[in-house]
Amino acid sequence: MKKILSTPVSAEDLKDIKIGDIIYLNGTVVTCRDVAHRRLIEYGRELPVDLKGGCIFHAGPIVRKKGDGKFEMVSIGPTTSMRMEKFEKEFIKETGVKVIVGKGGMAEKTAEGCREYKAIHCVIPAGCAVMAAVEFEEIIGAEWTDLGMPETLWISRVKEFGPLIVSIDAEGNNLFEKNKKVFNKRKEQQVKEISEKVRFIK
Amino acid sequence: MFDKEKFTEIVSNFVTMSGKILPDDVTQKLEELKNAETGELAKTVYKCYFDNQELARKLSRPSCQDTGVINFYVNAGEHFPALGQINDCLKEAVRRSTAEAPLRHNTVAIFDEKNEGTNVGERAPYIHWEIVPDSDKIEIKPYMSGGGCSLPGRAITLMPSAGYEAIVQYVFDTIVDWGINACPPLLVGIGIAGSVENAAVLSKKALLRPIDERHPNPKGAQMEKDLEKGLNELGLGPQGISGRSTVMGVHIETAARHPSTISVAINVGCWSHRWGDIIIDKDMNYEIISHKGAKI
To answer: Does the ipTM surpass 0.95?
Structure first.
């Protein structure tokens, strides 16, 4: 059965969710990436949207204005979450955001933030921007549009947004950090074997 | 007489299409890798990849939202007319595709940090030229690489004492450190030359040939195969969530080096490797090499 969360999400909702689980989300999602993080944390500017119990998506979409003046999500997919690592722990603390969606892993500080303030980080398969766009039912707001299309905070209503693969759970377990240890171990052996075959400078 | 309007229209339509439909070699390789996966998570991710491509085609939308800063690799026949007008045409083609596809606004001016929303700007689209002797045709390869798969790009100049062994180490370090975020399975392009700028251009050109086409030198071809096998043993899996493979392929491009240096550069293409190859003749007849049977 599909595990579907709805915003606002509570700490209680995240209790039984573990890394590697697949979940979906109903409710409101706000796109939020580099500059918005920088403005809140570094410049102390108030975020123009309430994220308590909410979901942010590290994403820069293609958006189109329709005939009726409303915006439509054309293509939307995750961007590299690691770019926000520097700010994310404090961001979680300041905003009360509960679900962060992006791609690739995030590091230790974000995992700490997830554990301390009860939040999760998930990845949605990247490059699947039409699949995700059709899960965005309606764009209900746009803030900080001065940042341009990719960086604007697009506030949207989503239905069964996913599949979201949990990469950091509310206990601070980190799927990608775990995987990376395995990849690094395998790497040593492979480099050794191949190096023996490429001694072309003699 | 060179038909500027017709030429611009063909290129614009081709760019627009390339952002929506993956080339044949990529689709075929992904199919192979998908079928080899056994784990639930990896299978789920590959299903998303294929469902997404179908939706992009059906709804006629860019399959990935990050349509990159467009690069064109142009192989111009020496007898193709009006070579002096091609730069203008390619810029105009990108301007049109940006509105029509639509492409994401990705071109940010250096220092002024402004995004004009056209994907046209200083040296954007970026155009790489090569002149082909005894030809009156022009071959154009547009490439859309997103930020995610451009981030792992790196280059270094090694001393010969480090040898090709250091190249192997550099490739593996790059892929483990940066590959996860670049949307695996990746296509890995390696340039080997005498200085970094030569190696860097070659590493990108390595991504613009059909997957599995091998280096002409048997040692180069073998190194490609060994790296490919070794990287797949790491098992990054689709999106780095672990699985049976890491890469779609490894391509090496080379230029003779200086005796004192050995430079290497790495660039990767993501699973959604949106490159195209079209050949246009002087009468504006065209042949699409990368997407057989595609309509533009």
So the answer is: no
Chain A residues inside the 8 Å CB shell of B158 = none
Domains and CATH numbers, chain A: 3-175 (3.20.130.10)
| Residue spans of beta strands (DSSP E) within A60-152 | 62-65, 71-75, 99-102, 120-123, 136-143
The DSSP secondary-structure symbol of B284 reads S
Check CB contact of A8 with chain B, cutoff 8 Å.
Answer: no
- Strand pairing category for B274-275 and B286-288: unpaired
Angle at which helix B40-59 crosses helix B24-36, to 10 degrees, equals: 150
- Residue A112 and residue A134 in contact, taking contact as beta carbons nearer than 8 Å: no
| CA B234 to chain centroid | 23
- The answer to whether A123 contacts chain B (CB < 8 Å) is yes
Q: Where are the beta strands (DSSP E) in B98-202?
A: 126-132, 138-144, 154-158, 186-193
Grouping H, G, I as helix, E, B as strand and the rest as coil, residue A20 is coil
Per DSSP (E only), the strands in chain B are 71-77, 126-132, 138-144, 154-158, 186-193, 247-254, 262-269, 274-275, 278-280, 286-288
Give the number of other CB atoms < 10 A from CB of residue B130.
Answer: 10
Instruction: Please tell me the pTM assigned to this model.
Output: 0.94
Closest CA to A155 of A57, A87, A82, A11: A57
Across the interface, of B219, B241, B242, the residue whose CB is closest to A200 is: B219
Alpha carbon distance A82, A102 (integer Å): 9
Confidence at residue A150, expressed as pLDDT on a 0 to 100 scale: 87
> pLDDT for A23-64, tens place per residue?
999 999 999 999 999 999 999 999 999 999 999 999 999 999
